[in-house]
Fold this protein.
Amino acid sequence: MSDTTIRTTETEQTGNRETTESTTERESTSEQVCPECGGNLVTDSEHGETVCRECGLVVEENEIDRGPEWRAFNSSEKDEKSRVGSPTTNMMHDKGLSTNIGWQDKDAYGRSLSSSQRQKMQRLRTWNERFRTRNSKERNLKQALGEIDRMASALGLPETVRETASVIYRRALDEDLLPGRSIEGVATASLYAAARQSGNPRSIDEMIAVSRVDDMEMTRTYRYIIRELNLEIKPADPESYVPRFVSDLDLSDEVERGARELLEDGRQAGLLSGKSPVGLAAAAVYAAALLANEKVTQSQVSDVASISEVTIRNRYKELLEAKQVSA
């Protein structure tokens, strides 16, 4: 190929590039020009609109605001409110800041790994697990938080209760309250205390049913923890059990309202002090169901509340008498 041909080809390529660049510039310029008067367009992020600076024509509206929904007035507030990365949580021993290697032996495209790659990934998982729990305290915390999460899932407790229970256990571990006590016992006591603090109480029998300790160890550890950590926990209110019992028995809202009224009448008559709140709640639900002509047996209520039928019979008669007196 001659020099003249090469120069001609380069000139054509240069001309094509210049033509493409000029076309792109015209397109980008036309996008920022008002279609009515040819004025400049500006973006009003406060109102989510693109308007013409000259004639005021609204070219676009209801635009997506891609900025944060919070405001910061200094650098420290900006650092505190920024949500870059995954959130930290007290429900994991490392607060969720470490890396987790998945258990599936597949690559990013879903293809299975070869035998040598699987062995390599297994070694990486082993070393990653060793680095995540570097000492006995972290191993203790990991086991306890896993136990709290398991029991809370079985009891249907929300995430806020699990977070509170994790904080209580961390405090007990930091203040050296665990020597001489089992990890499962302290974890169960922490979850029981957190559930009562948050207004989602569970009975001791319900806790023991999902725990790996007996009731004596659980209650003894619970009393020790609340005394040493100075936890302020009010006595359980029978009304806090009523919605759950009504829902488990598939009863109506009328029964729930009636049970609350019976408990209020019993409180005014002084019947609630010194008695099990679970038994009172179960008896109130049973009595309210009878008054509302809804079919439910003492055996069904007993199974839901994990108490004896004798307790239900004794308490519901007392509540009905208190209602008659108040009427």
Residues 1-12, 18-30 have pLDDT under 50 and may be disordered. The longest strand covers residues 41-44. The chain is about 60% helix and 5% strand. Residues 3-31 form the longest helix (29 residues).
